[in-house]
Amino acid sequence: MEDPATSVKKKEVVVASMKAEYIGHSIEVAHFAASDMEPQGLSMPSLEEAEVPTEMTVSVNEQTPDPGSIEVTELKHTPEKKRRVRVYSQKFRKEWLHLREFQDWLSEGSAADRAYCTTCNKELLAGKSELLKHAMGKKHKKRVAEGRTNMPVPPDLSSVLDETGMPHVLRIVDLRSDTVTQPSREMKEAMFNAPVGDDVFSEDHTVRALEEKVARMLEKEAALFVPSGTMANLICVLTHCWGRGSEVIVGDQSHLHLWAQGGIAQVGSIHHRTIKNLPDGTFSLQDLRSLVRGEDPHWPVTTLVCVENTHNMMGGKAIPLQWMDDLGALCIELNLPLHMDGARLINASVALGTSPARLVQSCNSISLCINKGLGAPMGSLVVGTKEFIARALRVRKVLGGGLHQAGIIAAAGIYALDHIAPRLSWDHTNARAIAQSVSEEHSSAITVDLKGVQTNVVLLHCDNIRVNAKKLCHRLSSVTDSETEELGEQIVVMVLPVTETAVRLMLHCDIKKDDVKAVIKKLRYVIQEYDNMMYLEYKISV
Hints:
The chain is α/β, with parallel strands linked by helices. The longest helix has 19 residues, at 513-531. The protein starts with 11 loop residues before the first strand and ends in an 11-residue tail after the last helix.
């Protein structure tokens, strides 16, 4: 006879889904339903996803009203009876913009399944749950608290992909040179509307207008348009050194000596002799006098003296006016012509507060660039007497510098002299602001000569222990996660190493106030990063 206390009851219990399945960002979970069943008595074996049976029976201990009785319940698995859970679509919906959680920072992304956070400058997946998760994040809340909402993305910012394929916004500030500028819309209109002709036949009226304008500006007789500054200097040297066996005296840090591939020797068979440049870009006039060759047939013939203004390698220094007058007087005494590499002559004029003509008063020839700091896409001018320009025209021809419809470029030069040159002082002010911020850090790893910043050039000097020039350039052009979090944006500053320990920053007409602020912010962060590095200083006693 069966004992009532140990009798077993069988009940059917439905298991709605034994398998977890991803739908978008949601998980469909298993739900259990059983009549008169308490969950604490249920014990089920774990099942692998590939081994879920279509039907199974398990035993459960169910307490009856009589504490001594136990029932055994049979469970059947019926996977057809699934309970669907609502999930959010990955497609961006405009109605989300009106939700309280998304107001003031959410906008559409670059694709239908992307959204954009204007507070963090970051693209997100467009799932509503993903956006809610971002809204609750600490970084987002911090930026909202700081008031960085509705930040528009300026047109000069670039979108790049990180290692995960997620786009991020970078502010890229290019300070490698003042030749990286882009022609403005107004400059392009001037180029488009310029009347042109064949300049090889001297029939381009826009080229003639530019040449006459520059000759009047420098108070010289004539000018000649050429494609580049390197060619302009080479033409001037070759024109002065018409005979064989000529020698040119140049500064040892001059552009003509360091950055022109030795063109005067390679192309013109002209010997050059260097004189030591002083920190202000000048050189000793007494040393110059001693370098002039005599009549010994073993020596080349000293034929030309060259000077650079502003002096690039010396930090954009403007050559002192009194020294230029003294140099001119000495060259007249020695019966030597004087050539000025005036690639950034107008910058020197602005810094010294005088006219460009006054700076070249003692010079027999000048080269002037319209694409260095002035924003034109290309072009330079050779300036001198009519006789000098007539000979320079022959040299330009053999070097392949004769252009045909060059008025398109000449129009950009005319626009640059009329509209960009008057605002060069802004570039000088921006350079000074950056140098001032570096000086205020009182760094031992990265320093700047604040008094030496006169024009649009800033030279940063590295200690070569914690950082050298190449490492600093690489660090300024990279972005770290901690940096992005602290600065609130991603900033890339492109600069140029000019020596092993010196880095050049060159301001230009495309740099705006926001760019300057970003550069200062980046430099301060990087300088503090290097100053906090541990290093050993070795002292050797003799």
